[in-house]
Specification:
Length: about 170
């Protein structure tokens, strides 16, 4: 009985059929995956939290901060982030699914709505612009005076700032 040019492996493949030919490539792919890993350490962030006040006090409702990237350190990429805050103004920043902010420079915008803006529909084709508690300049990234820089060497950052009542 001849085992062919592949020896015992050839007999095993011949007996097991098509699926057996997928076995060894699968073993090698699995070994490479284990040795290389699955993507490295992920996004490096700096924990950022703090408090935003409204006219020196509490907010009438919960709101949101958006951290819009302006510039990234050399070799890094830009990552927008956000944070929700309650009436007490306390927040913790999140970038995607990761807590914290990636190193870089940011402009911060603030949203807190008395009445949310709406899209148009059949009954009201124009929709509604809504009514914000926040002055326009704090909602516009081109005008917002709130800027932030996160250095790659920062261990954490605490922000405290006030948004005046309109």
């Amino acid at each position: 009985m001849s085992l062919g040019k592949h020896g015992k492996l050839g007999v095993w493949v011949a007996r097991k059929g098509y699926w057996a030919t997928l076995f060894w490539p699968g073993v090698w792919m699995g070994l490479v995956w284990v040795l290389v890993g699955c993507g490295g350490r992920g996004l490096e962030t700096v924990p950022v939290s703090g408090r935003v006040t409204y006219g020196g006090g509490a907010w009438p409702k919960e709101g949101r901060l958006d951290f819009r990237p302006i510039a990234a350190p050399p070799g890094k990429t830009l990552h927008p982030a956000s944070a929700q805050f309650g009436p007490d103004g306390r927040f913790t920043v999140v970038t995607g699914q990761t807590s914290g902010l990636a190193p870089g420079e940011y402009v911060v915008t603030v949203e807190c709505w008395e009445e949310m803006p709406t899209m148009g529909d059949a009954q009201n084709p124009r929709g509604s612009p809504g009514k914000s508690y926040v002055p326009d300049k704090y909602r516009d990234p081109k005008q917002s005076p709130i800027k932030l820089k996160i250095e790659p060497t920062d261990r954490s950052k605490t922000l405290e700032f006030d948004v005046p009542k309109p």
